[in-house]
Amino acid sequence: MQEIEGNVKEVLIENEMKEAYLSYAMSVIVGRALPDARDGLKPVHRRILYAMFDTGNLHNRPTRKSARIVGEVIGKYHPHGDMAVYESMVRMAQDFSMRYMLVQGQGNFGSIDGDAAAAMRYTEVRMSRIAEELMSDLDKNTVDFTSNYDETLEEPVVLPSTTPNLLINGSSGIAVGMSTSIPPHNLKEVCQGVITLIEKPDITSLELSDIITGPDFPTGGFICGTSEIIKGYTEGKSIITVRARMHTESKSSSHTEIIVTEIPYMVSKEKIIDDIVEAVKKERIGGISDVTDYSDRDGMRLSVKLKRGEDENVVINQLYKYTSLQTSFSMNMIALVNNQPRVLKLREMLTIFKDHRFIVIRRRTTYLLEKAEMRAHIIEGLRIALANIDEVIQVIKTSKDRDSAMKKLQSSFKLTEIQADEILKMRLQRLTALEVKKLEEEYKEIMQKIKDFKVILENDEAVEDIIREDMYELIDRYGDDRRTEIITDTEDLEIEDLIPEENSVVTVSHEGYFKRIPLSSYRTQKRGGVGVIGMETKDQDFVENIYVASSHDYIMIFSNRGKVYWLKVYDIPKMGRTAAGRAIVNMVNFEKEEKLTAVIPVREFDNRFLVIATKHGQVKKTVLSDYGNIRKGGIWAVKLEGNDEVIGVGITSGKNEIMLATREGKAIRFRETDARPMGRHTGGVRGITLTKGDEVVSMIIMDKNSTLLTVCENGYGKRTKFSEYSLQKRGGKGVINIKTSKRNGKVVGSRAVRDNENLMATTRGGQIIRMDINGISVIGRATQGVRVVRLREDDSVVSITAVSNAEQDVTEE
User: Fold this and answer.
1) What's the pLDDT score for residue 520?
2) Are 712 and 785 spatial neighbours (Cβ–Cβ below 8 Å)?
């Protein structure tokens, strides 16, 4: 490059093009296409929301014409096309585009069918309530401001953003040489992720995926598999498979319809119908006679009518394969960090948000502290004046003018100019006793605030506590259930569709051996039948539980270390009547030192509750649907402290009563409603207060048609009516269940039993004793009981269970 004349320079065209293109690229990346990792907004969205906030277009005010807001934005902050601004605003008002809408719209804002919104002169808007959380404390010097495009106004560089908006609403955009595609997530999960990050700073993205289980699209549907979700969270990029939600309805024996109620994110219903019609024309899908859209304001309902005799499972698989009822969503989590585009992992996204909130809270506290100190300074001057009111009045009366009065006040009472000015402004009504008292109370209150503000500024943990409380408030105010369900991998689903659904008898042995036999292999016996051997077991083993379940049901398997694993019933090996079964360790990935604690069959993960009790007296209640995130490696069901272990699991209706029995012979009975529902990876609440050295041995879901059986290690025990245990509040010390005397020994376990069941007791010496429950006496609560199990010398009972006589009531065909 060389200078030729004046300001004219000769440059190489390659260099000039490279520099100009790079400048253009960075302008698009920073100024248009990518969101800021702190507030999750692109400049156009930030400016729209700021313009609405600045003009008072809030959620509790009347809506305003969209054209007026667009005019504010392009006239003050965003000098681009009005349609580009309006389209951005429209998207923020669409409930099928945004998981948590930032704009409330009135009028036609488009539809999931692909219809466009009405012109901006016809529609009206205002901010949503959750959008105002993004503006929280904007007037308290919490963020930096910069000049607008013509330097006549100022706009925020970033919003204070109480909400983790980048994750809960996601973002998409195409820049130069890169693009971003961040899916929306559930607010409750993301806020809980922020809380966990504060409590466990070293937590990994993989561990966070147990809390933030996956994207949560506003249109619902299914995500197939968890491996790509985890890859996206740990690497920042992946491709997940999204499916529509469908079910079948039979109008008659020969007329079946497939009903689509939820579709993949960013797919229009019109495109789905076109895809189905095209696939039928090309003979990729057979068996469809008609497609009809019955959707209305109550929800989506797309009907696919089948021809007579067609297998609906085959058609559903073809629809997934050949239409946009199954799509891929590319997770490409790129956002701006310090105005530089970066691929972010899940933990990094939460950390950036947490750090942003940390700065915002400190800046807000500094601002409030300065305001409080200024007010305290003024009140101190007023207090001096009130304490010397006669002298102050005399000074003012003898002064020539305001300036001389201020100087005399400053010199006479050692006041600052601000204090003296405030004294001169003071009204005579402030001299009343009531006003003086109010001033003293205000001074005391403001000095406490100053103290609190200084604590926050000097203590990082105090700031983190504020962030944590903000997250809990967001959960309470805006939290909702997941819309998108995460299911097993696509390949597993296709295999399942080929497996006929039939009822099976699933047997589980005491040592953890599973097997299933088709129910059709049995025929009912009359009372008094001799039965047959239902399962051959190893020495010191016996059949502990028998379930009748569909081949497509789930079996939830809980370990003592607090993890839960799943099996489909069809994954349990189908074996002959006398086979021993397969060990659980060969079917699920138990970690070292994990042992089988409980087995729960589940047809669907609905709104019932799963209650878990631990050895140290904790109980935790969680909605069963929270365990629907199926993973082969298991997930955490409860957070355990120290050497605590899970001792019992049960499914409840939400209105049951629960009893905990301890090793030292105590028991507590309380209402299930005393324990509030909690998230999966939490530690629960105290169920019973234990004395030193005691531990919980059993949890019982109370059954009014049963009695409580308790057995001690020396073979003594009893049955007692549940009515003898008074109802207490959760967390109490309980009452005496059985006297653990030297004769009895410690309690081995307690069970709710019925007369037609059997007691199975296992001893330390390997003896297995089976006896009828109705042979055990029903006696009072605080007693020693009677001999239940006759033991050999130096032997003791180590475990008990109540088993049904079901295996004696059926025999093989």
Assistant:
1) 62
2) yes
pLDDT tens digits for 754-800? 888 888 888 888 787 888 888 888 998 888 888 888 888 888 988 88
Average pLDDT rounded to a whole number, residues 168-193: 90
Which segment of 207-216, 255-264, 363-372, 583-592 scores lowest on mean pLDDT? 583-592
- The CATH class for the domain spanning 245-324 reads alpha beta
**Catalytic residue among 21, 24, 122, 149, which?**
122
- Tell me whether the CATH fold assigned to 11-182 matches the one assigned to 499-812: no
By the 10 Å C-beta count (0-12 exposed, 13-18 middle, 19+ buried), 566 is classed as buried
**Residues near 80 by Cβ (< 8 Å), separated by ≥ 6?**
44, 74
Q: Which residue has the higher pLDDT, 325 or 517?
A: 325
Encode burial over 348-370: b for 16+ CB neighbours within 10 A, e otherwise.
bbbbbbbebbbebbbbbbbbbbe
Task: Provide the 3-class DSSP secondary structure of residue 582.
Answer: strand
Amino acid occupying residue 582: R
Q: Say how many C-beta atoms besides its own lie within 10 A of residue 493's C-beta.
A: 17
Instruction: Determine contact, residues 66/60, Cβ cutoff 8 Å.
Output: no
Nearest Cα residue to 424 out of 449, 439, 402, 408: 402
Amino acid at 732: G
Is 367 a known active-site residue?
no
* Fold designation for 11-182: Topoisomerase II; domain 5 (3.90.199)
Joined together, the tokens standing for residue 175 give: 């820049």
Residue 244's nearest CA partner among 501, 498, 492, 487 is 487
Contact in structure between 53 and 127 (CB atoms under 8 Å): yes
Band of the pLDDT at 507, cuts 50, 70, 90? confident
Question: Residue 661: which of 622, 608, 717 has the closest Cα?
Answer: 717
In degrees rounded to 5, what are phi and psi of residue 564? -125, 140
| DSSP E strand stretches across 298-425 | 302-306, 326-332, 334-337, 340-343
Query: Does the pLDDT value for residue 536 go beyond 60?
Result: no
pTM more than 0.70: no
Question: Do 728 and 666 form a contact (C-beta atoms < 8 A)?
Answer: no
To the nearest 10 degrees (0 to 180), the angle between helices 312-322 and 490-497 is 150
Residues contacting 575, CB < 8 A, separation 6+: 515, 516, 517, 581, 582
Q: Under the phi-then-psi rule, with left for phi > 0, alpha for psi from -120 to 50, and beta for the rest, what region is 299?
A: left
DSSP letters spanning 147-204: E-TTSSSEEESS---SS-HHHHH-EEEE-SS-EEEE----HHHHHHHHHHHHH-TT--
Q: What is the pLDDT of residues 414-458, one digit of tens each?
A: 889 898 888 888 887 777 777 788 888 989 999 999 999 999 999
pLDDT of 449-473, one tens digit each?
999 999 999 999 999 999 999 999 9
- Write out the CATH class of domain 499-812: mainly beta
The number of residues making up the chain comes to: 813
pLDDT band at 519 (very low <50, low <70, confident <90, very high): low
Q: In this predicted structure, what is the pLDDT of residue 533? A: 39
- Residue ranges of domains in the chain: 11-182, 245-324, 499-812
Each residue's pLDDT tens digit, 33-64: 789 999 999 999 999 999 999 999 999 999 99
Burial class of residue 13, CB neighbours in 10 A (0-12, 13-18, 19+) = exposed
pLDDT band at 812 (very low <50, low <70, confident <90, very high): very low
Q: Please classify residue 247 by burial: count the beta carbons closer than 10 Å to its beta carbon, then call 0-12 exposed, 13-18 middle and 19+ buried.
A: exposed
The rounded distance, in Å, linking the Cα atoms of 534 and 553 is 22
Nearest to 681 by CA among 104, 189, 59: 189
Q: What is the DSSP letter of 439?
A: H
Beta strands 154-156 and 145-147, pairing class: antiparallel
Q: How far apart are CA 356 and CA 159, in angstroms?
A: 10
Q: Are 14 and 20 in contact (CB under 8 A)?
A: no
